[in-house]
Every structure is written in structure tokens, then in C-alpha cells.
Amino acid sequence: MLEVSLTGSLQDSADGLASISIDARTIRELLRKIVERYPRMQGRVDEGVAVSINGEIFRDNWGEEIPEGAEIYLLPRIRGG
Amino acid sequence: MAHDPSYTNQEFKVIGTRPPRPDGLDKVTGRAKFGADAFAPGQLVGLILRSPHPHAQIRKIDTSKAEKLQGVKAVITSADMPDLTNGNRNMLDILENCMARGRALYDGHAVAAVAAIDMPTARKALKLIKVGYEILPHVTDVDEAMKPDAPIVQPYVRTTGVEPKPKKASNVSQVTQFGHGDVEAGFKEADVIIEKSYKTEQTHQGYIEPHACLASVGPDGQGELWVTTQGHFAFREVCAKLLGMEVAKLKVTASEIGGGFGGKTHVWMEPVALALSRKANRPVKLVMSREEVFRSTGPTCSTSVDVKIGAKKDGTITAATATLRYQNGAFPAIWAMLGAMTSYACYNLKNVKTVGYDVLVNRPKVTAYRAPSAPMAAFAVESTIDQVAEAIGMSPIDFRIKNAAKEGTRASYGPKYGPIGIGPTLEAAKNHPHMRARLGKNQGRGMACGFWFNFGGQTCTDLNIGVDGTVTLTVGTVDVGGSRASLSLIAAEELGIAYERVKCNIADTGSLGHNDMTEGSRGTFSSGMATIFAARDVIEVLRERAAKTWEIPVEDVVWEGGQAVAKGKAHGNLTPLTLSDLAAASPNSGGPIAGHNEVVADGAGVSFASHICDIEVDPETGATKVIRYTVIQDAGKAIHPDYVEGQFQGGAVQGIGWALNEEYVYGEDGRLQNPGFLDYRIPVCSDLPYIDTQILEIPNPNHPYGIRGVGETSIVPPLAAIGNAVSNAAGVRMTHVPMSPPRILKAIKSEQAELAAG
User: Fold this and answer.
1) What is residue B646's predicted lDDT score, i.e. its pLDDT?
2) What is the pLDDT of residue B552?
């Protein structure tokens, strides 16, 4: 079971929760299960999110495997110049 | 073939050298083709009519006289650009920004456009379009826009991130919060607390090349767009979606780019040019004037920020907060959120809280500007850091070193850091000769550090071997800062050949798979990774071809020093085959030799920089002069050091302009007062000293060569470093950017008056 911390305005789409427990082995599974539990999160995933696994930020590679007990943060997708 | 992106500490032969850039000669001789340099048979001139009002209901647009003018081939309004966005509000906002839909939302907002046979006819046609406006109340200041009685910019916007959910429209589009620990408890532990408010004014990226494109759409639904952009694949997708075209039928070619810095990550008039072309059934060239660039494209935010930092006398920061109000222009975005994420990213804090307010005003839609949002947050935080250091009697550099983030630190935006470079940049700053140089009369020294995320993204690259053994490298990331040179070096390194034998091209959207934009400092990081992998694929093909030629097992062939070598006693008499040998034999050994790679290049690694600067202030006039400036930044690995240094210097120079001169000035009427380079002054060479640089190389573990992005972080510290230097020189704390002579003079006189009053 992973403890997923939600940052910024993402909490708004998950009933205001700062963290949620999810059982997932990849980023794809993580996002699918979050949306199943909090359907309003679908819009945020469509807009773009990033997932931090043990401090490393992944924006696009949803196939990335999540190690057991990893520290997970769901972040808004950032933009650059 | 699967490739491992992990860093391997490979020994290099050509990486780190400084050969001439392949586009250099074209650029200095005028042969390079920029956005306005394309021509097509029968092309028309496009012009856009823009609102002179900051906020107005558009009651009526009468285009009949313009349409009847001889030589006019098309006139369009929002009616010619219907909403095809299927409920996607973000896309509808982009469409509405390209062409007003019932309301003009800022001075310069497009309301109609014409295509005519020549410029005089197009100008005349614009004058013949009659627009009936009902002027509405407007607001251009971020703090004013947050007041309860402020005119509402977007009635559909309800603030997100607050409870209870608002039912009324607001100019605050979202509130975002980051942090950890207990800041109230942390402030109780502090011996010193400094609390201060800051403002920064709106600036433009100031790229020298205005937006320009040549659009052509036929009645068969196929189209082409030649455009100056940081991301032609993204432009293709957005334009196709807005105009109801199929993506594959719109070919977009990126011209050479005369600067972008984030401002060319967004479409502004390209969909308008395509819509004009479709209506006229002729190619349409649309080139913005400088005034249009200022009034109608995407500058960065103006901001208003409150910072509070508490520390113990031993120099430990016990708590830190920031409240950041960023204006987004007339459309919702995430700029305050980015400010809230980056504010304290340089520091190891037990208790930290940042809150960002994204605010709508009647100004142009804000877009990215090099590490977007971070410089303004850094100005507020790093200015306060200096004041706390002074209050506890510690040097600013030692105070920063004591509190710097390191591997394992929980970033203020959430996750824990891996290996990072803030500590080494600060130590390098402390040991730099600049720190020990003597200051003259009326001179002050300042320093600051800065952070940016960096990212990678979708990337696709081809590498083809010509029959003479030369190499064509085809990438889809627009070259904004010398990446063709860096990527050619990478291909040469992998293949073991000379840099001069590689030619790197930027492909059009019809020639390569999708590539994300060149933003987020990703060009060399991500296309570099794809180039390494494509080259390694080519080497596998070359080994196979050599094995076929020699009629030996491929396992007995290795690639060494740019040639295939047969290993083992049985093959001792075989002369190595060079790339040229194998290329010449390719028609009979299996055909063309090519490598390809598509990759999602995640793991870009965060980036840090520390800057030092000396400023002289004339106490009589408030005029400033930059005496000396030093940039120290972690590049992971500098592939072509010239262009790494160029990015460091460019960011610093743009930051100097932002800190000291540049500013959007709006009148009471909500109109931009200074849309030109005479009244909006960017720094030129004679304003600047040589910008000294020091490259640190702390390898990124997620890239085979250890590369980190370098294009953005260098603009984060300058506002604060200069703010601290000016404050030290003038003897008064500067809290408002730009620190123009009138503002400095006013601050000096206020301080003198306060002292005189006792």
C-alpha cells in the first residue's frame, strides 16, 4: 500500500485530502485507481499531473514502476519557458 | 531496442569541446530563414485589428466595407473561428485569446483580421472595419483585482482550492498551498523574525524576432504553416484542434528562431493566419509589429508577495512563509502555483508554508518566461534572507550555506531531493574571487540563489548514415540556444567520428514523430538522450553489416574509434572497416543504415544557481551601473561549454533588465503606455559588464552523460542578487522591481526623511 501525498490544488479534487492510501505498482495503475476513487480527479489528470517517486519527478512515463514503500507525491504538471 | 538512461561516467573525446555552431555562418551572414523570411506564390498580407480598450463588450462588428475593398481577399471575426473545443475550457480560452468572442479582455485583444494583396490595402481594410464597443470597467493591478468590488474579468471563473466552494465569480482563479511542519511553532522558536512585502512589475521576454508565420490551407483540408516557434508539433496540435483540421494534414515547419524564452511556446496569431488562408484560399503571411508583440502576446506576471522568515541566532531558519499574488492576464493559469512551489526550494526548512493566488486582470494572457514565476518569488525570499542574516549578524553567504537544501532534504513543494547542487554552487560562490574583490564608493555587493525544476518529455530522433559516411541527425526539438551543436557532438561522440561529419536538422512535423516543445530546459537533455540511443542502434546495424562483409559472427565485431573491428585470433588479418567503408558498401549489405529512437525522457533533475553582483548607485539621480556579475550553476555535464555559458549569461542579462529597467506601464485608461523598445528598455551591450560564469558538473543520475537542463535557472537569482546589491549600495532596502532610477531615488529620499525625523 502506498501513501500518496497530494499537493497544491490537487487536494481540491480528492475531497480536500492531503494524502490517500492506494495499492499500485505503476504510475498508470496509481492514476487509474485515484480517478476511480475520486472521479473529479479525471479532469486534473487530463490537464496533466506529475508523480514524484522517491524525489524523482515523472511527467509522462506512466509505465514507471513504483517500488514498495516509495514516497509518492502527486504534483500539478509544471510548465517551463 | 531498450536503452538504459542511467549515468555511466563514460570517458569523452569530443564532449566538452567548443566547435563552431552549424547555424552560425547562416545567422551572421543573413542567410538564415526566420519566421518572416518565407514566401509562397500568391501570398497575401494578413493584419489584425485589435481592441483599444482594456475591457469592452463588442456590440457589433461591421466588416462589409472592408470586404468590398478591392484587393481584400478575406475578412474574419470570431464567427469564422467557431468553438470546436467540445467543452475543453482551456482550449476555448486559447481560441478566445486568438480572437475575442463578444468581449475584448485587454488592450490589444484581436477582434478581426484581414488578408489582402498588399500591406497598404490590408491597412486600409482594417480602418474600414467598424466595431461597436460598450466600454466596461477594467482592472490591471493584481492587488486591486483581488478586492471584492473589482470588475470581474472572466464571469465563468470560480476560485478553486478554497472551502466552501464559491458560488460567485472571482478574479482569483485558484489558491494553492505547499509546505510542511508547523510554521506558527517555528516562529515561536525564532530569535529574529523579518516580515516584508514586495512587488515586481510585468516584463516581456523581449525576443528580437517578432512573431511571424506563413499559413496555407487548401479546400482539400490540407495545410502548411511556417512559423517561428519553440514547439511546432504542439502548434500543429493546437491549431488543428481549434480549426477542425486533421493533425496529419497540417504540416508545420519551425523557422530559425530569433529568441523565445517561453514566449513562443504558445499560439497567438497562427490560428488566425490559417483561418484567413482557409477563407481566402491563398497563402497568408502574418508578421506582428513590435507594438503588437508587447500588447498582444504573453509577458510574465506582475506580482505582489509577502514573506516572513524567522531564525535563531545560530543561523538556523525556524520557519518561513510566503503569500504570492501573481496576475495571469485575462485567462486562468498556474503562475502563482509555480511561485509557491519554487519560493523556498533552495532551503532545508523544518517549517514552511507558501500560498499562491492566481489572479485575473485586464492584461494580455501571461505565458512562460524562462523558469516561469520563480524569479519573482526568489526576489522576495532572497531579499528577506539577506535581511535576516544581517539581523543575526551572519554573512549572507554563510547563512545560505547553513540552511541550504541537500540530498534527502524535503523540498518545500513536497518530495525529498536526490543529489542536488545548491550547496556546491554556494560554496563556489563563497570561494570565488569576486566575493573578495574591493568595492568602490557608492557600490554594493549582493548575492542570491535560485531553483528551477527542469523537465524532459516526449522526444523522437532519427540518425541516418549517408553513402559517404557522413551523418544526418534529425531531431524535433527546436534549437533555441545551440542544441544542434550539442546534439552533433553527442552523435559524434557515440559514433567515434569527427563533429564536422554530423549535420543536425530540425524536422518538420511531417517527417518525425511527436516532440514536445523546447521548454523546461529540455532540448539538449531529452534530444541528447534520444540521440545517444539512436546512435547506439546505428552501431548495432554497423556491426551487423561488418559481420556480413567479413562473413563472421556479429558477436566477434566491436565498434571502436569510429570503425568496426574484428576481435579474436581467427580474425587478426581483417582490416577494420570505417563508417565510410560500411556506408559505401551499404547498398549490397542490406540497404540504408539508420537508427531511430523515441523516448519519454523523464528524470531531468532539478537545477540550482548562485549569482554574485556588484552595483554602483548614483545617490543624486538613482541611476545604477552593473560593475561585475558572476553566475555559478550546475550543468550536470556541459556538452558544449560555450552554449552552457551563453545560457548562463543570457539569463543573467535578461534578469538585469528585469531588475533595473523593464516594466509594462499601464495608464489609468488600461492601455499599455510603452509598447516599444524606446520606452521599454532592455539592456544592450554598453549597459553590461562581461558576465563571468562558472560551470559546476554534478552528474544527473538519470541521463547517460549526466546532463541537466541549463536554459532557465540563470534568470531566477538576478532580481534578488541585484536587489541586495542595490540595497547595500544605496543604504535602503529596495522592495519594488524594477529598481529604476526614480524608484531608487524615492527610496533614498524616504529613508533620509525618516532618519531626519528621528
Assistant:
1) 97
2) 96
* Domain range A2-76, its CATH number among 3.40.50.300, 3.40.50.970, 3.10.20.30, 3.65.10.10: 3.10.20.30
Residue B349 CA to residue B334 CA, distance in Å, equals 24
- The beta strand positions in B32-94, using DSSP E, are 44-50, 56-62, 72-76
Q: Out of B265, B522, B602, whose CB is closest to A58?
A: B602
Which of chain A's residues have a Cβ under 8 Å away from the Cβ of B334? 76, 78-79
Closest partner residue to A78 among B414, B417, B455, by Cβ?
B455
Edge-to-edge strands, sheet with B457-465: B502-506, B471-475, B457-465, B593-601
CA atoms within 13 A on the CB side of B549: 24
Secondary structure E strands in B635-706: 691-696
Q: Got the DSSP string for B688-753?
A: ---EEEEEE----TTSTT-----SSGGGSSHHHHHHHHHHHHHTS---EES--HHHHHHHHHHHHH
Query: Considering the entire predicted model, what is its pTM?
Result: 0.97
Q: Tell whether B570 and B617 lie within a shared domain.
A: no
Which of these three, B601, B636, B666, is where a domain ends? B601
The answer to whether B603 contacts chain A (CB < 8 Å) is yes
Q: B541 and B639 share a domain?
A: no
> Per the domain annotation, does B243 fall within a domain?
no
**Under an 8 A CB cutoff, do A79 and B337 touch?**
no
- Give me the pLDDT at residue B12, please: 97
ipTM attached to this prediction:
0.93
Give the closest of A5, A16, A47 to B414, CB-based: A5
Chains A, B: CB contacts within 8 A come to: 106
* Residue in chain A lying closest to B356 (CA): A8
